[in-house]
Amino acid sequence: MMNEAPLVSVIIPVYNGAQYVKPCLEMMMSQSYKNLEIIVVNDGSEDNSAAMTAGYPIKLINHEKNRGLSAARNTGIDAATGEYVHFMDVDDAINVDYYKALVKAIVETESDIACGGMVNEKKSYKTRIYKKQETFADTQGKLQATYVGKWGYVWRYLFSLRFLKQYSLRFEEGRFIEDLMFSLPAVYHASKLVVVPGAEYLYYQRENSIMTKKDAAHRKKRREDHNHAKAVRQAFVEKYNIKIPGLDTGRVAYVLRKLFKLIWK
Fold first, then answer.
1. CA-CA distance, 69 to 90, in Å (whole number)?
2. Of 78, 70, 84, whose CA–CA distance to 163 is shortest?
3. Cα–Cα distance for residue pair 237/132, rounded to 1 Å
4. Is 0.85 topped by the overall pTM?
5. What superfamily in CATH does domain 8-263 come from?
6. Domain range annotation of the chain
């Protein structure tokens, strides 16, 4: 382990997630890496989410009204004092050496971003575990190693806070599918990115989450924001003249992807 462990700011937005707060904070307390600044952003919850943080050594920030996940994450960025930043969803999980592995890799390679593995509980074909540590500086290498243009999940990454501020990277507020519009530019602009074995994020898709609610208005909003994210991605691709690994390139690719999903269900 490095002589001076850098501070990692962990930003945890919460909206009506009281049942997840204590398990999440206990998981943070159990991390093998101890120099963590835990920032819980209570985004106008109507339950006792804020009260569940009592007794934990955390920084609690309350939004008076619900402003959405993007706004909560931006509030966390503004409050962060660590050298590195990680965005944690309150209802997901990480392995005990998660931050230890990511920090070691990002420090020794002097990278702007470290990318850990992810286990997708519902969609196993989206699970991605790294077997060896590798560092990428070229655009196509970074895009291929992370698949960021296809899977934008922001919680996969440990970011240098200096780097985020250098490129004024923020989440677009008022939108779903906000991760892709943050992660793609971040990975593109990183001077170096390291992929890390031994750091695994467990992604659970809970009932009544932003991505699983089934009411008509929610589905309409999600569909509109999905199309918006695709348009933003396309504009980014054209601006920087890049190719996104994982996107359909024709009918054959579409059929193969569908078969792959069926096999790995």
1. 11
2. 84
3. 29
4. yes
5. Spore Coat Polysaccharide Biosynthesis Protein SpsA; Chain A (3.90.550.10)
6. 8-263
Look at residues 197, 221, 66, 193 and name the one whose alpha carbon lies nearest to residue 135.
193
User: Could you give the CA distance from residue 98 to residue 173 in angstroms, rounded to a whole number?
Assistant: 28
Two tokens at 23? Answer: 């398990």
Judge contact between 39 and 76, C-beta under 8 A: yes
What would the pLDDT profile of 89-102 be if each residue is shown by its tens digit? Answer: 999 999 999 999 99
User: CA 213 to CA 190: how far, in whole Å?
Assistant: 34
Backbone angles phi, psi at 60, to 5 degrees: -105, 125
CA distance linking residue 57 with residue 72, whole number of Å: 19
Cα separation, 32 vs 100, in Å, equals 7
Label each residue of the chain as H, E or C: CCCCCCCEEEEEEECCCHHHHHHHHHHHHCCCCCCEEEEEEEECCCCCCCHHHCCCCCEEEEECCCCCHHHHHHHHHHHCCCCEEEECCCCCEECCCHHHHHHHHHHHHCCCEEEEEEEECCCHHHCECCCCCEEECCHHHHHHHHCCCCCCCHHHEEEEHHHHHHCCCCCCCCCCCHHHHHHHHHHHHCCCEEEEEEEEEEECCCCCCCCCCCCHHHHHHHHHHHHHHHHHHHHHHHHHCCCCCCCCCCHHHHHHHHHHHHHCC
Cα–Cα separations (whole angstroms), residue 93 to 12, 47, 84, 103, 170: 12, 22, 19, 18, 24
Q: Which of 66, 81, 59 is nearest to 12 (CA)?
A: 59
Q: What is the pLDDT of residues 173-231, one digit of tens each?
A: 988 878 999 999 999 999 999 999 999 999 998 654 444 455 788 788 889 988 998 99
